[in-house]
Write a structure and sequence with these properties.
The complex is a heterodimer of chains A (249) and B (863). Chain A is an alpha/beta fold. Chain A is 35% helix and 29% strand. Chain A has one domain: 3-Layer(aba) Sandwich (Rossmann fold), CATH 3.40.50. A 7-stranded mixed β-sheet of chain A has the order 6-7-8-3-9-10-11. In chain A, strands 2-1-4-5 form a 4-stranded antiparallel β-sheet, covered by helices on one side. Chain B is 56% helix and 19% strand. Chain B is built from 28 helices and 22 strands. In chain B, helix 2 packs across helix 10. The radius of gyration of chain B is 35 Å and the shape is elongated. The chains are: A alpha/beta (249), B alpha+beta (863).
Chain lengths: 249, 863
Amino acid sequence: MGEEHLIARSRLTPVVEMRNLKKTYYLGEVPVHALRGVNLRLFSGEFVAIMGPSGSGKTTLLNLIGTFDKPTSGKIYIEGKDLTKMGEEELTALRRNKIGFIFQFYNLIPVLTAFENVELPMLIAGRPRGERVKRVRELLGLVGLSSRSDHRPDELSGGEQQRVAIARALANRPSIILADEPTGDLDTKTGAEVVRALRLAAEKENVTVVVVTHDPVVAQKADRILEIRDGKIRRERVISGKRGKVAGR
Amino acid sequence: MSLLKIPVRSFPRRKLRNFLTAIAVALSVSLLVGVNLATDSASHAFREYLDKAWGGTDLIVTYGAPCSFGEDNLTLLENLEEVKDVAKRLEVAAFVNGDPAEIIEARGVDPSTDYVYRGYEDTIRGEWRIAGENVVITEALSENYGLEIGDTFTVTTRKSSLEGGRPCTLRVVGIYELAEKVEFNRLYFFVDLDYLQHVSDLENRITSIHLKVGDFEKTAEIKETLRELFGSEFEVYAPKLEAVEVMKSQTESFRRGLDAMVMVSLVVCIFLVFNTMFMSVRERTNEIGILRSVGSSNFQVFTVFFTESLLLGGVGILMGIFAGLILAKVFVHVFMGVGGFPEIASLVLTPEIIGKGVLAGLLAVLGGASYPAMAACRVTVDQALRPEMRGTREGSRVPYFLAGVLLFVSGSSLHLGLLPFRLPGVDSFALLIGAIVVTALLLGKGSDSLSRKLSGLSRSLGMLVSRNLGRKTLRTAVCFGIIGMSLSFIVMLGGLKAGIVEAMEGGIEESLGADIILISEKNLPIGFTENLLAVGGVEEATPVSIVYPGTKCLEPESRSLGIFVVDPESFPAIIRQDFVEPEGVSPEEVYQRLALDNEALVIPKHLAEELGVHAGDSLVLESWVEVGGQRIPDNTTFTVVGVFTGAILQHVWIGLHPLSESAVISFESQAEHFYPMWGRDRAWAFLLNVSQGYSPLAVLERVSQEFPEYGFQSNSLTYEDMVEFGRESIDRVFYILFAVLYFSVFIGAIAVAIVMVMNVTERRREVGILRSQGMSRGQVLLMFLGEAIAMGLIGLVISIACGTIILKGTTMAMAFDGLRVRMILPLDAILHASILALVAALFGGLYPAYRASKLTVVESLRR
């Protein structure tokens, strides 16, 4: 990729596009400007890492893409649709069909088995049983957990749980996967395995992945690294194999 | 700092949960206070009602006919220390203008000494002093005959005009306005005792002595003294005491039922408090660790949680006592419709009732909080501060399962009488708790398989709901247990009600004997039967009468006896009695003997057993004989020609004797041996059977229209009337019992609400995950609501199974006590319980589910 990548992607329709996105919270009476005008475009099949110190606005950005939250001002588009103009039902449907989530603490449903956790988004989406079973088997195979499908979360290791979460995120064939510190609760080796599994799965499914991380090792696996500070994207690095190009902002 | 600051400050921290628990305690307390307050006030009002009905009279001595009570006896009576007042009375029938159809009553009183009559002074319009022919009449008599003060009227006393009775003209000097319309017969007049004795040829004779005692509580004791004093020939009644006892015995089952239902709600409340406190302990394990790590003893930790529960109880008890006052008013309102109960002026909250309420509240709180508080002090510092040390491996559930099965089986066996002893009350709760434990353990193990059953609505929701139900087994079990327990008694009561109504209808059909008991305002000649038979729809008719107010049986035992007079020809065609003696005899044969022999009578088995006589034996009865155109007292020996069984006509009474327990003679016999109060061959009532296809009510209406002057419509009884009255009474009693149970169901709904609030709080993160996976707010709402509904449904299943067993056991126990009630599968009650289960679940689950659905993803995941 590299420079060619930047030229090529500018001609593509972005999966996610943010225009002058701002988000302000209030802690009591005190306003907290979490995002101060973010412009960003994410393209199909990209693996993007977002880095930055605590409180820089990473998770807020992720929550806005994930439709969990609404911006104070600015625009955000997913596959060309303006999220700010969507109602609750449309956002829920969008989340159900277009977005997959991976959390730091796995967030699997404790009463469901690995199989059922992966099946859950498809159940919610009302997919037929045959399709569900086939897809769950395929995804658990993809993350290397076919033999652990009947186990509940408390019977799985942290790495295994996170791989189940990756499979779950892919269940409804989303366009985007949003991962918030997916290796934050794992040791280095397991973390690396999880990122490998995520990368592999994302490539195979052609999904855009946005990973928020503090870990430079994880970030190095991405196509692009966005550095965010004080609510703004300060730096963008494009990584192609071992070569990298810095695009200042 | 006192350690007690912790519970005091913790108390408002979980506002909703603690508030709901306090409400549940308040409901239980209010129920107990309300029921006690209502019943105590009702008893008090009943005593006042009796005082008004009987004046100050506590005891009455009678002979069964006018007689001399003996000067010595009267002097002795007046000198008895416990007796406050004595009044002599002569009460005889009087015929207006000598017409045997116009019967009223003459009450001979001594106005200077009769304390009862003197008590009426304020209610007598005009002059209350009576002497000679100057009399005081009742307002009813005044209205009936258009008599006013100063008017005169003529009556014949003692004998009917047909027998040359002596007419006398009386002058109205006063009109007595009954303060309370409690007397059945309101057509009477007060006349001077000496004058009445003189005009009735009853010199020195009286019919009764009324006594007022100093201390009502000693009435029974004084009654025995009077019995010894007068001997067995005289009868001593304690009307108020007997009425109170009758009332007590009649309402005892109802009271017992009420107590049982209050107990159900108390047990339900104990479960709820247990749940709340147990959740609180589990939630604050970390806090316990901190307390232990800074050196708190086991006892101090126990005190912290126990004090918190006491605060909960205190608030609940306080609210409960006030709510109980309101509830009592509601109960009283319903009570007043039962059996024409007197109006209850005020409710008196006595220290005893408050004490009971406080005790019930404390019992609920302490009973529910003891185990959680003990569990709190067993937590070690390690376990408290390091969750990984708490141990995730659960012990074997098999012993609990076996204990549950044992409880269920032993409770059911005890309740169904399969064991040689009984533990009333305990058995029902044992089988219920056993069923709840077994269901909870099965649910914990088999919740996966339940998901298939629940996936009808939505696969994802079914799966989640079923898994979540098996997740916190204890709290879920308490919830569906509370609902199951309350609904079991709804199912049981529903079945019992259906059985009692059926038994009542059957009983009335059997006991009434005829389709209509036609009672006239005036007595009619027995030939009036022909007029009745001419009315369309009347199939059969027979005249009946009574010897008023009964007679004296002298041998084989001295006692008063009711005498029922019938026409031996037409009577057996309508009333089918079963004759047990002589063996194999038909009613027609027995009545044929009655028709042929004026010294023959038939008696019910119950009376025969009391007198110790059989068919063929003799009874000596006090009677009258005609000597030289005058009738004088005599004794006649009668032969018992038949002994019958059955409860026929048991709802109809002659004075103190129900017809079903009276001796039966013919009209011929009455004319020969007894004083015909209403004249010869005159009927007091007619028994009618209607033709097929006719309704007794319609026929009664037709007869009333045909003969409007006799007031049949308002005085007569039909099967439908009695069934309707019976149904109404049963309905009212059961309404109250059901109302009490609704409180338990409401407590169940509160339990569901508490558990669901807790579940939502604990599973906020999960809600966030589900929402992040695309679950809509509606689906989240449905998921939590589904859990609540599932709890209600499991409770319903338990209630149907256990309620049916409890019902079976209860009907068996009732049969054991002599009341045969068939067990009817209570489909109505099951439907009733199903609706209540759903309402309780929706009531308890809706708000928490709504709260869960309103959680934002960001907020949920942040926690």
